[in-house]
Structures are given as C-alpha cells and as structure tokens.
Design a protein that fits this description.
Helices cover 46% and strands 16% of the residues. It is an alpha/beta fold.
Amino acid sequence: MIESEEFVQALQDSGFDFFTGVPDSILAGIIATLMERRLYQPAVREDEAVAMAAGAYLGGKVPAVLMQNAGLGTSLNTLTSLNLLYRQPCLLIVSWRGFEGKDAPEYRVMGQTMTQLLDTVRLPHRTLSEQTVTEDLKWVAQTFMKERIPVALLLKHGVVRGLQP
C-alpha cells in the first residue's frame, strides 16, 4: 500500500501544484494530506472542480482533480466541451468505486463501464498500482504535457492508504 504522504509528494515532485475535487472515502487519505499541506481547494461538484482546474491551468498552475467515478459522469460535459476542446489539461485522480461489482449497488454500473466511457470520450487513462506508481506518474506527466488534455489515473480501494484501516 502506498502511503498518502508519499503519493502526494510524488504528485508535487511531478509538478502538480493545484488540487481540487469532491471527497470520497478511497481518496480520504490523499485529501487529508493535501489539506494538511494547504494545497486542496474543495469543490461542491465534480464539474465545478474540473472548471476550477481549467482556470488554475490558465493561471499557470498544474492542476489535479480528485473525484469518485460517479463524479466522472457529472463532469463529462465540462471535460468534453471545455478541457478537451480548448486543450486545458488536468490530472483526474478517480476512485474506482464498484470495481468488479464490489461496492454499494449505486456504484456498480459506473464501476463496470468507466474505462469504456473514458475510451469513448478519448481520455487517456491508467490504473495506479503500488508496483507501477513510478511508471504511472511518468506516463501522466508525459501525456499531460504532450497532449495538453485531461488524463485519468484510476485508483482502486486499498492502493493508497486512506484514513481508516
């Protein structure tokens, strides 16, 4: 398991300096660390967070948005009509609720279809793992800068330490 502090530091070392999003239990450790470092700007909705990230990018920041995959559905219009259209990159750190049907019923459909949805709207994505975290973050940095579009890093339960054991 990756410690939240190490993951946040790796993001900062990769150049990310603006973090926003909507809380989720899988992301709780990361958000707590970002809040301790005074780097997190909470959003009310995921589409608002994506728009905040676009504004931060225009202001010279390198943004990351934290959300659960249900919020990905909420933010699709903003991602396609703002970020993709106008080349406004951001890192989407998306908790994979409903992975393999293991979660509350309301997460199952998005859990089963999230990668297909990302492929459909042409958002590059990878699934973070403890074994590949260094390569995953290198991929994020390269794709982010080269393509200048949002990229998604999918986060399954238990990969990064949360607040609860």
